[in-house]
Amino acid sequence: MLYFENRLLPFLNDHVKKPVKQGKITSTWTNNNCESANHVLKSAINWKMQDLPKFINTLYNIVKGEQEER
């Protein structure tokens, strides 16, 4: 119970509850969205480990593409 009260609850408050109230994320975001994003990322790197700079560049391009679609 201490872990929940001291670690998990404050984390959820800071990274879920507050961003939803501030309109940074929608309350309709689900774990399925996370799984979908994970699949897109893994597909982009062909499910293989990459060096960090190349991985960051790939991630940046995915995010940039998503922003351009909006």
Blueprint (SSEs and pairs):
Layout: H1 2-21, H2 31-44, H3 52-69
3D architecture notes:
By secondary structure, the protein is mainly alpha-helical. The protein has helices at residues 2-21, 31-44, 52-69. The longest helix has 20 residues, at 2-21. It starts with a helix and ends with a helix.
Strand content: under 5%
Strand runs, count: 0
Helix proportion: over 70%
Mean pLDDT: 86
As residue ranges, the low-confidence spans are none
Task: Report the oligomer.
Answer: single chain
Summarize the structure.
The chain is mainly alpha-helical. It has helices at 2-21, 31-44, 52-69.
Label this structure with key terms:
70 residues; mainly alpha; 3 helices; single chain
